[in-house]
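Let us practice reading a record.
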Amino acid sequence: KPEKPNHYDGSADYNKFTCFCTEVRDYTDYYQIPSRRLASTISRFLEGRAWDYYAHEILLGIFNYCFPLNFREKLRTKTRNFRQGSRDVREYIYKLETLLDLAGINEEKDRIQQLWNGFRIDIRVELTARRITTTTHTWEQI
């Protein structure tokens, strides 16, 4: 009965990597892990750079495979047009952050600009009166 594989952190250590591969193969073979469960099973033994790769590349690959090619562009358009409206600030920020994440808008300056542009005018006026701007303040400060 094989032990659980040691965690692999993504370090460029050939021996560590090949040992990890062998342990994973022995573990998944012994427990007869079905192929549809291999990725999620292996992911439990990843950390550091290896986990980062899994989380970004594998999950992004699944997203890109499952969703239409123009899905992100449609989300970006929806995000650009998204406004606070009658929502309170917390609800607006929560929904905006969800859209920004789904649309793949990760640059802080772009996120801040969208936050600002979507606020109701009375909130933007108040922020401006407090000398808060998109160029001098962080998302958290705004």
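A brief commentary: The CA atoms of residues 11 and 72 lie 32 Å apart.
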